[in-house]
Design a protein that fits this description.
2 domains; about 160 residues; 4 helices; about 40% helix; about 0% strand; mainly alpha; elongated
């Protein structure tokens, strides 16, 4: 009798262990199935860095986002591995959409202001579409024309 009781307890313990393992396994599978891994975005953008994005970044962002400039990264190179514009694409999109960048707080409906670095709606659309569309570099044989970028203070060095 004692032997049969211990077999029943042992069997109940096996069933409980199996149920627990099954529950944990089902939870893990559900988590994996609902998690999206974005190892590489498909190329869906018609805009490329070399042809469309670089000229905008050079003209509107390059005064700060150049090598050695006051911004923490250069956007004047494509490089994914070395921290170029492609590596920062999601951050670029976030900062443009939230209007944190460019730091240009002049009323666009007011009079024209000198040295406007604000983006036009078309320029904004181009960069955001490129950033969310897989960040294509474009023709690798066609390097964008580099323009000399001054990383000096536009209004003189601060005296503070």
């Amino acid at each position: 009798m004692a032997n049969s009781q211990s077999r029943v307890i042992s069997r109940k313990s096996q069933i409980a262990t199996t149920a627990t393992v099954s529950s944990v396994l089902a939870f893990a599978i559900a988590m994996i199935a609902t998690t999206t891994i974005d190892a590489h975005k498909g190329i869906t953008s018609k805009f490329t860095y070399n042809d469309d994005v670089y000229p905008i970044l050079r003209d509107k962002c390059g005064h700060c986002h150049a090598e050695g400039g006051p911004a923490p990264m250069s956007l004047l190179r494509y490089s994914i591995d070395a921290g170029g514009a492609a590596a920062w694409a999601e951050s670029i999109r976030e900062n443009l959409v939230s209007e944190a960048m460019p730091p240009w707080y002049v009323d666009p409906t007011g009079p024209a202001v000198k040295n406007n670095r604000g983006l036009t709606p078309r320029e904004l659309d181009t960069i955001v579409t490129w950033a969310t569309g897989g960040t294509p570099q474009g023709n690798l044989n066609k390097k964008p024309v580099d323009a000399p970028i001054s990383v000096n203070w536009t209004l003189g060095k601060p005296d503070v």
